[in-house]
Amino acid sequence: MKTAVFNYQQERGWSVPTFPQLDSENTLVLTFGSRNGFADGAFLENLSNAYPTAHFLGCSTSGEVLGTSIMDDSVVVAICRFDSTRLRSAVAPIQTSKESFAVGNRLAHDLLAPDLRGVFVLSDGMCVNGSELVNGFNQALPPDTVITGGLAGDGDRFQKTWILRQRQRVNGYVSAIGFYGDRIKIGHGSKGGWDVFGIEREVTRSEENVLYEIDGRSALSLYKEYLGELAAGLPANALLFPLSLRRGKTDNAGLVRTILSIDEKAQSMTFAGDIPLGSHVRFMRANFDRLVDGAMEAAQLARKDSGEECLAIAISCVGRRLVLRDRAEEEIEAVRDSLPASAHLIGFYSYGEISPSANGRCELHNQTMTLTTLSET
Question: Which of 92, 124, 213, 248 is most buried, taking the most CB atoms under 10 A from its CB?
């Protein structure tokens, strides 16, 4: 396995004088870029010409990660040629969040094979219910298949996101790539670091990822009470105060959910993942040191199943970046310090993270740092 990482900026061009000669049918070209960066078609044309037989996968971001740097209005690229691992790509359109389960299930069936070991997924970040998308994959794939990935971002604008389809940027699609064979090693880790506060409340009215009532009260009005003056900045300010979700009283692990949009008329909030009826929620707020520690723990978990020579893909929620601000690079540095010295690190800030939980089942996460490592034995 051979890997190279570099970046592209409109005003500066490529950060490498020539592209690494790594094209093959088992080469993955992974690209993460800002909406403005993706608008420049030159970088895609350059990459397509250099890697005509490779598999392309990519999405728009809320910030790009390369090494220990966080960038904006750029595109970061990883070229990974596998020696003994077979790759297969799949892509499907999605128009509404109600199609999420079916789309995930369809992509899983497209990739399913006896030697499938893992799937990496990138999805449009605006028109998808990430929980149902993941459930669709889980229903079709064996439980030992590692599923990771994330939802595309658009800064803090929440207007339009992109993924790559046939080497062209499009919105309203989900793409995935499967890894096949006994030589591939896929590590994963996902951690948060937020503090809960206030009493735990019950979800008394919801529909999939739309929350209407908590404890019989309007969810939006209750949320605004907690935010106070910050409520004027919704939905972006909701990234600073996500919800902790437990599906039942016996669920001790919990998930984090963050808001994609609000509806003043319906007094509702739409989340990146499901908010099941009868589940229990608490409000959360940032603890700077714990966020950085969580990123480090995620990398340590991913390293357990990683070779020394690996590609590490970091997907962190945009909410973490908005909270950490000038300290955001600290979580990236904590990740890098926890990985093998020879690892290549690339990633992006997202609207949702896909990774197995502690129980082994793949879930949609929000406000976490999620790591995927790829290596071969």
Answer: 124
308 in helix, strand or coil?
A: coil
pLDDT tens column, 186-216: 999 999 988 888 899 999 999 999 999 999 9
Which of these, 67, 61, 49, 62, lies nearest to 3 by C-alpha position? 67
What 3-state DSSP class applies to 321?
helix
How far apart, in whole angstroms, are the C-alpha atoms of residue 77 and residue 44? 11
Q: And the tokens for 249?
A: 């009283």
Cα angle value 30/270/101 (rounded, 5°): 55
Q: CA triplet 39, 332, 353: central angle to 5 degrees?
A: 65
Structure tokens at 182: 């006994």
DSSP annotation of 144 reads: T
Q: Which of 342-357 are b and which e, b meaning 16 or more Cβ less than 10 Å from the residue's Cβ?
A: ebbbbbbbbbbbbbbe
Amino acid in position 108: A
Q: Would you state the pLDDT for residue 253?
A: 61
Instruction: Spell out the domain ranges in the chain.
Output: 2-191+289-376, 199-285
Q: What pLDDT digit, counting tens, does each position of 218-239 carry?
A: 999 999 998 889 888 887 788 7
Give the separation between CA 273 and CA 149, rounded to whole angstroms: 14
User: Per the structure block, which two tokens stand in for 82?
Assistant: 């596998």
> Strand, helix or coil at 97?
helix
Residue 33, H or E segment: strand 27-33
pTM of the model: 0.89
Question: What is the pairing mode between strands 55-60 and 27-33?
Answer: parallel
The neighbour count for residue 68, using CB atoms within 10 Å, is 14
Give residue 362's pLDDT.
94
pLDDT at residue 60, as a whole number: 96
Per the CB < 8 A criterion, the answer to whether 163 and 170 are in contact is: yes
In angstroms, what is the C-alpha Rg of the chain? 19
CA distance 76 to 32: 5
DSSP 222-285: HHHHHHGGGGGGTTGGGGGS-EEEESSTT--S-EEE-EEEEETTTTEEEESS---TT-EEEEEE
The rounded distance, in Å, linking the Cα atoms of 36 and 19 is: 22
Lowest-confidence range among 34-48, 101-115, 260-274, 310-324? 34-48
Phi first, then psi: give them for residue 369, nearest 5 degrees.
-100, 125
